[in-house]
Design goal:
This protein has a domain of about 30 residues. It is mainly alpha-helical. It is flat, with a radius of gyration of 22 Å. It is built from five helices and no strands. The N and C termini lie far apart (about 50 Å).
């Protein structure tokens, strides 16, 4: 990697950091400093998922369109009734 490329990457990181701290500064009036993590972290995670899934988003939406309305809305409950007790959600062995 060239020095210019490394510098450009470092600039991008600095820009992202500045954006995040800028948002934190905007929230200062509404949230205590100790509460930032509770507010910011979920949005950071959602944004990360959005970026990671971006290349397959169209495929995921197409697949969803195929199954929309065909999936049993009680799926988790109906599946857990058919699972063996040892792996059923909420069973004693999974909550230990």
């Amino acid at each position: 990697m060239t020095e210019h490329t490394q510098s450009a990457g470092g600039d991008a990181i600095q820009n992202h950091a500045a954006l995040i701290w800028g948002v934190a500064d905007l929230l200062r009036g509404d949230y205590k400093q100790s509460e930032y993590g509770r507010v910011i972290l979920p949005f950071v995670v959602l944004r990360r998922w959005d970026c990671v899934l971006a290349p397959v988003k169209a495929d995921m939406l197409a697949q969803y369109a195929k199954v929309e309305g065909k999936v049993d809305p009680t799926w988790p409950k109906s599946v857990s009734r058919t699972l063996p007790r040892r792996i059923a959600p909420g069973s004693a062995s999974t909550t230990r």
